[in-house]
Amino acid sequence: MDFSQTKLTTLSDRELFFALCSEQKDGDIFDEFAKRFLPPLIEECEQVCKVRKLDPDVGNQIASDTLAKARKYKSFQKDAINVTGDRQSVLVYLFRIAINLFNDHHRKEKKAAEGFVPTKTYFDDLYQQTQSSSDPESLQYTRDNTEKLLKQLNSKERMVLLKDLEYKRHQKYLPDDVTSELAGILKVKPDTIRKIRERAINKLKKGIDEINKTS
Question: What's the whole-model pTM score?
Fold first, then answer.
């Protein structure tokens, strides 16, 4: 079903959320949904930040992530929230998502404070004989060979690999939302991103092995 902008503005809050959950081509629907619900979400998240003594930027990000999750999972059901009031039922549903995201943030912060042991990256095994050395020659050697390895990848492989390295320290695989974001940028399917990642890693490991063998 196609919803014109005029039609969208006449939908109730709950009807708009149902439309968002039922349509795959939901760009216009999501724009209208965000226009209605991002401001109250930001306000609520800012209050949570004050109580939990968090930076307001955390609240703004969680507000945006809440809408993104609601859009992605499309799981709002007519009888999911037993609350009187069309708008309030949608807000309660969104606030639940936001609180879960705040709790996820807290757990990540707690892990970091407890000395969370990071996952090794591919580069941790690079240039075995220079890993313990910090002299200028060794550092330049590592830098030059790193650039050489990255040049062996095509532009898509480099983008996916560099994004993977951002998250590699804390988790083994790219989060689903990051994979979806990359898929949108590169105009491919999420499964293709995973294949690109695997191909890039294999190229990198092969290059590292060759450098270590000849060094």
Answer: 0.52
Q: Where are the alpha helices (DSSP H) in the chain?
A: 5-10, 13-22, 27-52, 56-73, 86-113, 136-151, 155-168, 176-186, 190-214
pLDDT for position 44: 95
DSSP class of residue 117?
P
Q: What is the end-to-end Cα distance of the chain in Å, rounded? A: 62
Distance (Å, whole) CA 53 – CA 46: 10
Neighbours of 168 (CB within 10 A): 19
- Which fold, 122-214? Arc Repressor Mutant, subunit A (1.10.10)
Q: Do 168 and 82 touch, CB atoms closer than 8 A?
A: no
In this predicted structure, what is the pLDDT of residue 101? 93
Structure tokens at 109: 């912060």
What amino acid occupies position 137? Answer: E
CA angle 31, 37, 41 (to 5 degrees): 130
- Residue 33: its pLDDT value, please? 95
Q: Give the pLDDT of residue 66.
A: 95
Task: Work out whether the CA dihedral 153, 155, 157, 159 comes out positive or negative.
Answer: positive
DSSP 168: H
Residues of the chain below pLDDT 50? 129-132
